[in-house]
Amino acid sequence: MHSPATPTTAADADDPLRRERDHLHSSRAALRTMREDAESLDISDVAGTWVTQQVLHDQIQRRIAALADLAHTPLFFGRLDFLHAVSGDESEGAGGERFYIGRRHVHDAVGDPMVIDWRAPVSQTFYRASRKDPMDIAKRRRFGYTGGELTAYEDENLSDPAEHQQASALLAAEIEKPRVGPMRDIVATIQPEQDEIVRADVSGTVCVQGAPGTGKTAVGLHRVAYLLYAHRERLAKAGTLVIGPNSSFLSYIEQVLPALGELEVAQATVQELVAHVEVRGTDSAEAARIKGDARLAEVLRRAVRDGITLPTEPLVVTRGSRRWRLPVYELTEIIEELAGREVRYGAAMESLPQRIAHAVLVKMEHAGEAPDDRVQDAVARAREVRALVKACWPPVDPAKLVLRLLSEPEFLARCAEGILDEQEQRAIARPKPARSVKTAPWTAADAVLVDEARDLVQRTPSLGHVVLDEAQDLSPMQYRAVGRRCTTGSATVLGDLAQGTTPWATASWPEALHHLGKAGAHVEELTTGFRVPEQVIAYASRLLPAIAPGLAPATSIRTGQDSLTIRHVGADELVAAVLTACREALAREGSTGLIVADARVPLFEAALAGAGLAFLTPGTETTAEARLTLVPASLAKGLEYDYVVLDEPAAVVAGEPDGRTGLRRLYVALTRAVSGLTVLHEQPLPAQLA
Ligand SMILES: Nc1ncnc2c1ncn2[C@@H]1O[C@H](COP(=O)(O)OP(=O)(O)OP(=O)(O)O)[C@@H](O)[C@H]1O
């Protein structure tokens, strides 16, 4: 690595570092000019309505925001020197043989690029070129920054057979930076196997199985940013969405995409997606499991169509002095034909009057009349026709329907016949029938059923791309809810079977993808860990045979020693020992997470307060001043801290309804640390870890 021992001066015009700093300086100036240009755009003369003006104004504001020069975010992090000129397609107008790779495109006054967006085709080479396959690269240069200042660079002469492969110190330093604050982007250090997933084709759904800390979340977020760059028109219009397990997790990741210049990606939990009813109740694990079972989709389909009845009397429509009659068998044919089609219930209901009116029109024509479309519309709106449609194809209110299904055992029995056995029906039936949709104690699983019923009535609009993180915890019915939000788009499904902690957790990815409506999607595996030190992941992986027998343990790029401490303490000494461990961790740089069983949270809230140790709740940003977070085990998923103090593993395991889920919860807790993990226990450790 080249790091100048003494500061460079103007006299060092030939010093390569000096030249790179100059390029940084002029790139920043160019970015400023681009921003000023955007700010000075005057749209007052642009013709158009107030609405189009407003849209244009918003677009310009977004562009200005995207062109912000963030002081601590380097404008470029790499340079590529090609052996030959790059073809026009790939270079995106860059034309030359040398490219600076950064977070966004920056061009000079005449439009020549000074920094190329990391997502441009030519940048792919930066992430993928290797000594084995140099991809026409003579030199790959990585830059090191200290507080926004370019202070070092490092070269790999990939096409020089005499040069030996060396581990990159800058890469290692970047990956090993202490963690404070929210999740950061990884554009400077995306690894080749991650890049393959990031740039996978937009039309296909990708599923990533990866051990803790292998970068699944990071890859998913960079993939949306990449897809928005490569398919901006289509995706910006259709919309993109990142789905995470809870709001703490979403706040932890919410700044990554804006830092990459993408401000328009929506974020939500599955619960928020299906929030059509107010969730106030909880289900037993058994009831929730059955309600989340994919078989419920057929039960609901039957329930929605349960009201369809065939007419018993002919339809008589009066027009002027004449009466037109449609016999029962004709009406029956129309309704049966419609019921046999795979159209949404609501769409069918809307088309039924026209179909009936059409049959009446045919009668008129046979009688020698020449009715036109207006007559058909009038017949369709006739009182007699509306009454018939209401009786034979009644409107369905999805929430009321689900409420009825759960409250009326006979109705449930009819819809679930041959699908759910009696015991299963009893398990999901409400003990007390609820009076109304508003007052019913809806549960999270009920809300998903309502969402399914809504979709049976009216098609749910599809987005362009959906990233589903921590997917392993979704029930089949939740997968369906996500799947209908990307029927015409694609998805990135991220998860780890070993971290599934719901009673219905995913057992196999092909099955999950089937429920998502993306059967046959590619399943990729990431196995290199970037978070958890080798020692710690090896320890946690001892649980794998019990929690996910088919999965191989992850490796880690962090090989540092002394990252794991396990301490057994005597009776009544645990809380004090935990507080001491927290103080020790806080004496070092970076964030500290104290993970405790949910039931022990109040105990530690009091203990920390009593000891004068200020602490945050998960999802609140850690800062240099506030670095300790008290994390209930149930919220630890997806988060990370430099140092983790884990209190009483046996209590974490005991907090779950069954042993395997308990060990999985513990596996999640054990894999949150970046630099060091301290496990403190009074009770015996689970056998696998003893
Ligand atoms: N290529 C990379 N360069 C630098 N840091 C990386 C890279 N890949 C992942 N990381 C970092 O490793 C940490 C773990 O990544 P991430 O949270 O995406 O993993 P995960 O697989 O989603 O983990 P979990 O299963 O625990 O949710 C993050 O701090 C992330 O920024």
Task: Name some characteristics of this structure.
single chain, about 700 residues, alpha/beta, Rossmann fold, six-stranded mixed sheet, six-stranded parallel sheet, 21 strands, about 40% helix, about 15% strand, globular, binds adenosine-5'-triphosphate, DNA_helicase_UvrD/REP, hydrolase activity
Model description:
This protein has 690 residues and is an alpha/beta fold. β5 (137-146) and β6 (149-156) form a beta hairpin. The longest helix is centred in the N-terminal third of the chain and has 24 residues, at 16-39. Among the domains are: 10-176, no CATH class; 315-392, no CATH class; 534-689, Rossmann fold. 41% of the residues lie in helices and 16% in strands. Residues 1-11 have a biased composition (Low complexity). Keywords: ATP-binding, Helicase, Hydrolase, Nucleotide-binding.
What's the story with the biggest beta sheet?
6 strands, mixed
Low-confidence stretches: 1-11
Determine Rg (CA atoms, Å): 31 Å
Terminal-residue CA separation? 43 Å
The total beta strand count reads: 21
> What is the oligomeric state here?
single chain
Mean pLDDT: 90
Q: List ligands, each type once.
A: adenosine-5'-triphosphate
| Overall spatial form | globular
Helix/strand/pairing category? alpha/beta
Strand order of the largest sheet: 3-4-2-1-5-6
Number of helices: 29
As a percent range, the share of strand residues is: 15-25%
Approximate helicity band: 40-55%
Biased composition (Low complexity): 1-11
GO molecular function, one term: hydrolase activity
InterPro entries: DNA_helicase_UvrD/REP, P-loop_NTPase, UvrD-like_ATP-bd
Domain UvrD-like helicase ATP-binding: 189-533
